[in-house]
Amino acid sequence: IEKLDDSAFTSNIRSLLRGLADGIDEPLKLIIAGRSPLDILFPDISTGTSPLYNILTTLNVEPFSLEVTTAFFNHYLVDTGVEFSQEQMRQLFIETRGRPGRLLEAGDKLYRQIVSSGSKVVNLLPELNIFEFETAKVEVKQRRRLTGLIGDSYKTEIIRSRGNARYFVEHLGNDITLEMVEIPAGSFIMGAPASEEGSRDSERPQHEVNIPSFFMGKYPVTQAQWKFVAALPQVNHVLKSDPSHFKGDNRPVEQVSWIDAVEFCDRISQYTGKNYRLPSEAEWEYACRAGTITPFHFGETITSELANYNAEYIYGAGQKGMYRQETTKVGSFGVANAFGLYDMHGNVREWCLDDWHNDYEDAPTDGSPFLIENDNTYQVSTTLRGGSWNYFPDNCRCAYRNGYDRRDYIFSNVGFRMVCGLGSMSLL
């Protein structure tokens, strides 16, 4: 920072960063209103290669918390005539993992989008439409015991109903689309009680989390979608065009690493101008539960009539079923949860943004990812959710989570689905 040419702006940003390091909230004041703060310093240099960005990226500065990120942008935008909403700052924080250099670059990109729109409203999403879907609940009923038999006997019954949700369609090209479902804001209890069959200490302590609204893929990313995006210009990482073991355009893509999934999100974000990313664990579980508190969004148990998992094993009072030993086409069971999401239990495990933690002690309560401060992203374990085609039913529960110590890990039961966090938002 000291290497920057002296000016009111650089003096104040030095003061701000020093103050933040010392726990002091120093205001950052800009001189020229209505222009990008980086334009003030470097009018002829693009954001990504500006000296300020490079210095902030190079310095060994601990990642900002969400609170500090909010303060940073509030100061950053003083006298510019532009404001970021709380949701936009939260999404920038998630996207950049709180790293100051990346925050500055991503924030400046959003600033330019707002200014170019000519108003304080950024319309990044197309018009939303409503779709209808079928949901299912598995009810367990006790059979009448016959004379001479020992123990209880149960049967399951599938109760079906209708629901609806709002969504938008991303038209990628070559008749390939991506459907993104609106997940309403709300709160839920994350994790599982010790009394839940198959639960683990890593799913505790249970804690309440408040989730802002976001959009989530109706299905896991398919192989057709993968092939299209893999052909787009590279951002940071090379992608294989057809990595999956079980082939089929409408099957979920698998044998893709966390690094691959992040690159996919980066490419589609660059292509569409929207902010696509992996979900946080809290967002994933909230979306999976869809208002339920049972082990599965189907209820107290699960059945192979509704999901793809190893049904040679049973959960609770459930029954044995079909073990398909491969992935199935996304949405092939024809039932969604109450939010309109398909295949949240089984088929493929799904990558999340969070660094792996052994439990939920000190976990965020605002839906943001649980990150390890000052980590080397690619050397810290990350998390998977949802279970898969070859997983036992207890490992397909809403609360089930597991971690892998390699972000380049690939297997035929690992895929992902995306979320989109920046929508049409008023900044007034």
Largest sheet: spatial strand order: 2-3-4-7-13-8
Q: Could you tell me how far the N terminus lies from the C terminus, measured between alpha carbons in angstroms?
A: 33 Å
Largest sheet: 6 strands, antiparallel
Query: Element order, helices and strands?
Result: HHHHHHEEEEEEEHHEHEEEEEE
Low-confidence stretches: 1-10, 23-52, 423-428
User: In angstroms, what is the radius of gyration?
Assistant: 23 Å
Mean residue pLDDT: 82
Beta-strand portion reads 15-25%
Q: What is the count of β-strands?
A: 14
Counting DSSP H or I runs of 4 or more residues, the number of helices is 9
Shape designation? globular
Class inferred from helices and paired strands: alpha+beta
- Helix percent band: 10-25%
Structure notes:
- By secondary structure, the protein is an alpha+beta fold.
- The chain is 23% helix and 19% strand.
- It has nine helices and 14 strands.
- It has helices at 8-21, 37-41, 51-58, 66-76, 86-96, 100-117, 223-230, 258-272, 281-289, and strands at residues 121-122, 129-142, 154-173, 176-183, 186-190, 207-211, 214-217, 276-277, 349-355, 382-385, 401-404, 414-415, 419-420, 425-426.
- The strands form four sheets. It has a six-stranded antiparallel sheet. Strands 11-10-9-12 form a four-stranded mixed sheet, covered by helices on one side. A two-stranded antiparallel sheet has the order 1-14.
- Strand 3 and strand 4 (176-183) form a beta hairpin.
- Helix 4 (66-76) crosses helix 5 and helix 5 packs across helix 6.
- The protein starts with 7 loop residues before the first helix and ends with a strand.
- Mean pLDDT is 82; it is low at 1-10, 23-52 and 423-428.
